[in-house]
Amino acid sequence: MRPLTVTMTFLFTDIEGSTRQWEENPSMHERVERHFAMLRTAVAENGGDVFTTLGDGVAAAFTSAEGAVSAAVEALRRMPAVGLRVRMGIHTGEVERVAGDYRGRPLNRAARIMGVAHGGQLLLSDVTATIVRGGAGVSLVDLGVHRLRDLVEPERLWQVAHPAIERRFPPVRSVDAFATNLPSQRSSLVGREHDVRRVVELLRRERLVTLTGVGGVGKTRLAVHAAAELLCHHAQVRLVELVDVTDPADVMAAIGRAVGAAGVDTDAVVGALGDMDSLLVVDNCEHVLDAATDAIDAILAACRRVSALVTSRAALGIPGEHVVAVPALDPNTTAAELFRQRAVAAGSSPGSLDGDVVAHVCRRVDGIPLAIELAAARTATLGLHAVARTLDDRLGVLGGLRRRAGDRHGTMRTTVDWSYRLLPPAPRKLFRWLAPFANGFELDALVHVAAAQGIGPAAAHEHLSSLVHQSMVVVDPSLHPARYRLLETMRAFAFDALDGTGERLAASSAHAEWVATITDHPMDAAGSVAVERSTRRLERDAENWRAAVTHAATYGTPELAARLCGPPTLFFLLGRHDLADVVRPLAALRPRSPWHRIAVTGPLLVTSAGSVDRRQVQGWLDVIDTAEGERPSGVAVILRWVSLVWRGDFAEAVRVCLAGSLDERLPSTVRDLLLGIAVLDRFSLTAATEDGDGLVTRALEVAARAEVALTRVTCLLGAAWGLADTEPDRAVALVRVALADMERVPALPGRSMPGNASRLMARLDPAVAAEGLLEQLDPDGDGPTFVALVPLVYAASLLHRVGHPASGPALAALPASTHGRSMMDFTELARNAASTTGELPLGELQALVRAALADIAGRARRDAEVR
After folding, report:
1. Which residues of 91-104 are buried (b: 16+ CB within 10 A; e: fewer)?
2. What does each C-alpha distance from 680 to 412, 635, 651, 652, 676 come to in angstroms?
3. DSSP 430-447
4. Most buried pick, 139, 219, 351, 492, via CB within 10 A?
5. CA 792, 793, 794, 799: dihedral to nearest 10 degrees?
6. E strands, 596-654, in order
7. Would strands 48-54 and 57-62 be described as parallel, antiparallel, or unpaired?
């Protein structure tokens, strides 16, 4: 019998800032209990029922939407008496009622709506707002449409306005307002509502929670959803994926990359985390369990405000660890519902899904979600009864694998092997050869690998569609272009299959050869549009490049390694000291071609110039100079500039670039880029103020004709710096043009140049700087990221310089920054960008700074009108 389906209105609540108050306020227990009593009374008086508590909040159900709103308003009216700020969210929808509890998507939406509210704020979904509009004695304020965590469809939010509760709040904290790298979820989480609540409540009390279970049971999905619930409780939430870490020594480096650490050791990671309230989601620890255990233990010991949510097939065994065994889904209820949803999404008719057969299939795959999704995907093409028969045959043959000690995949090996063997030979081989792609692939990569097998583009596309349809490959259609990847279990199976067929070396070589199609450009094309375009592409495929270079170095193929290190790689590696260990083995390679010797030497210098002996840097430069000979490409000049900037010799760096810009032997595109660098460095890095040799005019002429975005932006910003003292209005105009072009600039320059522009704005006339900085503050930005915080840092400096009262709280809320003089100095700000240490959330900080800048600009306009 199916559960009773009812339409209800749900109220979710939570105390803002409760974690800190529990630590600091001795009376917190008494205040929280009074708050619970007030909530229960308000709910009961308005016809509702509190059916569960969630940490410091409640979930209540009402048959009347107006009753839910009235209860929430009454509770908010009473809360000031206990000194707590409570956020609330309400949504109405159809759910299943099971033994006094509720299941269904409306509960997730109500919780998400509550999660984006501020303390004292009551938010309604659009459907609830439609029901209560004109009733409940309240008015509604339209806050617009927002994306909510893990929900596919956006939501129009409405704020309840009532004389007895607060009315003014910062912008709601929708999905882009949090410091996180958690992936977005494009399908619903079925049957895990109680598991999510349990994990969330544990993490609000404990610092280490480990999710254990067999492969495919949904540990990662559960961890991501639970972490998403906690976004508003932490300054940052970071996902650390260990699935591609094969060497235990690289575990800490993987954590460091996720948190933006400057190095790969424990000290660097601890330094990056500092005293920031952080949640680390460390995924797939089982194959490097000892190293992961040591790393997590060290971090938790050193960083008292860091918590960890771990997924592993075995517990870590650390003192204080709380283990949650993730169960399979119930074949008769939650597993069957998951199967039905996925089968219908794949194209099956709901009427064709016989309940008994669905339950049988779910039992045959042990209720494991990934296995269920694979079987459901096959239903649309084979039919439900054929899927059931095939599963019976395969499991009868492979059932022993489930009990074999040492088998990493267990039940999932059975399921994946079944799905894999149903593939025709050509797509089966293609599936195997996709295993080396470390962070997914796009269609051109697929076509390249397929061509290595003698498969044409049309057939390759058809095979890919088949693999996606059968859940062997997943796609993210929200990206442009669409990106594909193998799930963890699928990729591990594919690697095993490669080993079984003896194809791993051939597949890895085909993968590396494809990466080389991005990077293999002539050295004398370093300043071209094609190289810039490939550099941007390389950023999307950074992990694939890493795997390809490792493959080339491991198998001692210097020519392939050189093709993987062409001009796009040099631009991509600027500031990427985390990749120094990847390129270091290239030093042992000895390509025959002079151009290839430049290619394998350049990455060594770019990634290590700031950390190795100056004589080593000079040795690399000598190799490059010798290889270029009488046919210079300009790469040697660019690399010499990099080495001088790292040494802090800015005057010599400017001289080298200026000389290169006049060297007729170099390609014109490289000369133009060198001129832009020279102008920008002269006026922004040195004390130069005079422009006796007309560099600003030359830079503007280059900017007008250059096709390369990096060259245009560099010239425009350099000219703006040169005109800052004499023509500030024109300088601001040039900065605006440069920033509009910034999205086309790849790699580190594209991340550091907004900071350079902000620094220029902050030293101009306060009114002019305020106007310019206002345009850089994006109210709908990506949360506390490097690019979002750079203008805030310089705006706060401007407020301090003019003595504005908002400067104190603004500076207190921002990370310490160097206001560095070189482009490379901005890497320090990039590392610390998410480290907001004050009391202000990013939205409130942005609102504060925007208001202060508007005040400065407005006063200047009023003064001008009076004059």
Report:
1. bbbebebeeebbbb
2. 57, 19, 12, 14, 6
3. HHHHTTT-BTBB-HHHHH
4. 219
5. 80
6. none
7. antiparallel
Say if residues 767 and 853 touch (Cβ distance below 8 Å): no
Whether the bond between 784 and the residue before it is cis, its omega within 30 degrees of 0, is no
- Residue in this structure with the two tokens 């709901």, named with its chain if needed: 350
Residue 591 corresponds to which tokens in the numbers above?
Answer: 């390509």
CB 479 within 8 A of CB 485: no
Cα angle for residues 525, 531, 533 (degrees, 5° grid): 155
Q: What are phi and psi of 233, to 5 degrees?
A: -105, -5
Q: For the chain, report the end-to-end CA distance as a whole number of angstroms.
A: 81
Query: What tokens does 834 get?
Result: 């998410």
pLDDT score, position 519: 95
Specify the length of the chain in residues: 867
DSSP helix/strand/coil, 53: strand
Question: Both tokens of residue 299?
Answer: 């971090």
- Residue (of 46, 77, 71, 58) closest to 15 by Cα position: 58
Per-residue pLDDT tens for 216-245?
788 988 999 898 888 777 878 899 999 888
Structure tokens at 397: 């043959």
pLDDT digits (tens, 9 = 90+) for 789-822: 667 777 887 888 888 888 888 877 765 543 333 3
Return the exposure string of 796-814: e unless at least 16 CB atoms fall within 10 Å of the residue's CB, then b. bbbbeeeebebbebbeebb
Name every residue whose Cβ is closer than 8 Å to that of residue 537 and which is 6 or more positions away in sequence. 518, 568
Tokens of 233: 């409780």
Instruction: Name residues whose C-beta falls within 8 Å of residue 543's C-beta, 6 or more positions apart in sequence.
Output: 244, 438, 439
